[in-house]
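Lay summary

Proteins are chains of building blocks that fold into shapes. Our project writes down both the chain and a compact code for its shape. Here are two examples, one after the other.
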Amino acid sequence: MNLTAIVRRFAFTGLILASVHICPAPSASAALLRDADIEQQLSDLAAPLLAAANLELDFVRVLLVNDRSANAFVIDHRAIYINSGLIEKMTTPEMLQAVIAHEAAHIANGHIARRTGNLRNSQTLGALGIALAIATGAFSSPEVAGGLALAISNSTWRGFLKHTRAEEAAADQAAANYMRRAGVSPRGLVQIHRLFRGQEALNESRQDPYVRSHPLSRDRIRAAEAFLAQYGDTGEPDPDVMYSFARLKGKLSAFVRNPEWTLQRANEEENIDIRAMRTAIAYHRQSQTDAALRAIDQAISARHGQDGLYFDLKGQLLLESRRFPQALSAYQKAHQLEPDSPQIMGGLGQAQLAVGEFQSAVATLEEARELDRTHTRILRDLGQAYAKVGRIGEASLVTAERYALTGQLRDADVQARRAMDLLPKGSTGWRRAQDVHLTISNNLKRQ
């Protein structure tokens, strides 16, 4: 997760903008944080809850939104989105699992189907920058849905996300049952409700977004407490769950907190590898590259050299420090240990670009794109790789697709028409460019 430059930018502008590991949302102050390690920990924490809800982990991802406000939401049936600010407020893994179970219940119970239908029929789709994604079927992709939906105006966004009290009560009941069946303590559901208790008495402008989109009530808190009293706290502490939660929070906090704060509190972490990882990130953000590398090597050693996600982080630290050959070596090891991660492939492709291995970069990034066709960083780097090897038409095509996915429709149309001029007429690439061009043209005519 390349948050270093982003955090520095945030201090000056208050906005989170596009960066290496970010899927940007135009006209928004938030974006998805695409990090292989964090998404793996979220996946591990979510797995038993999604199974209990009869949802397949391969088809429902849990993604992190770079927003310091507390919120969680679903847009369609393919992903659960959790703001970084909500995770920062949590003190136990069961709290996070309760939120995941609750959002999974909204998916399983069909609460979002009606709103998605209303959104598709909205007369304002063009202005919101969502029409292209819906027309091309990309709206079903979690990353696209998140990147585009975050660009909606605040009033429309809140209205789309807001659940009724009846839906919330039903989702709470389902979440409690999922947690019980999964062997997770339902105490987390009580804790998350108590976290926001009293906020409904505040002016809406002072409430956490979670309260506005998930209306609380004393009845909901009492219902969660009654469920706990009836069934008891049957969940047993799971060391693997506790480790995943500590690693998730540790990496996130190391990137968003002041480095001095991280270094002062590093010894509070009992897991040696997580402590070393946090220290490495803090030193990196202070431009102390050698100290950062010593720390990340300690994390790698603590995991017996078999943790590809730590090699991924090492590659990022080296790449951002412009030590390109070493970065390439780290990413190659990460890819060897985690061969199916499109994000690690993306990092490897970026390192190959940096050392001038352009043909290898094309092959790597094409493979990454096949695994995740909506990852805008991969599309950006693939466009650069195509340009380096003289495949300008394909570079224009993937640039058009990248702009389209982030709602930059006019820029996307320019690139799509350029690709149509350069690619053989009737070829697969030419037809893809034509689809982008025609969809955008039709959308712009309706505005």
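And here is the second example, written the same way.
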Amino acid sequence: MSVSGAVYPFMGDSSMFIPPPDLQFEEYCVSCDYGTVNPTSMGLWGRMGDTWYRLRESYYDARKVGKSRTDEEHYDSLEELLGELLPTAVIVDPSAASFIEVIERHGRYPVVRADNNVIDGIRKTSQALRDREIVICDTCTDAIREFSLYRWDENKPMDTVIKRDDHAMDDIRYFVSYIKANEEPLHFAFIERT
């Protein structure tokens, strides 16, 4: 596989993807990049110690299927992804106002509007992947596919990604930005309890 222009070239190594570990996770989160015509990508994350695992995903491509989903249908997919699990947060694409409203109206999951700073988010995600703070499980086939396709636009003078094959990439970036923003308060709370 060619890695020329790849945003995450080191993710071409198959050892970066592991089977979901058989663990009792300490907490769960979901990250979501929302689309009506473009794909909607949701990832379920489980934390054990200092590591978050992307355990499974829901990926719906309306163009490929030939049918758009309503916000309620996307919510049904969120419930199916979580099953009986209750997440600490569902981190959602900040432009998805109608979907955020549906999640809030159901009142079951706490929803957080994602930080959508692309370049800073990519930098944080790259470091988190290299440091194994986040690990992608081999069950997340659409995320793995997008890692192999996600590219910098080499025709632009500034750091710019090509807006294609980026929906799982966006939801992963939203997740990392969220955990990084909450890293210090969570660490401080842990110190206070001991």
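What can we say about the second shape? Helices lie at 62-65, 71-82, 97-106, 118-130, 141-149, 167-181, 183-193.
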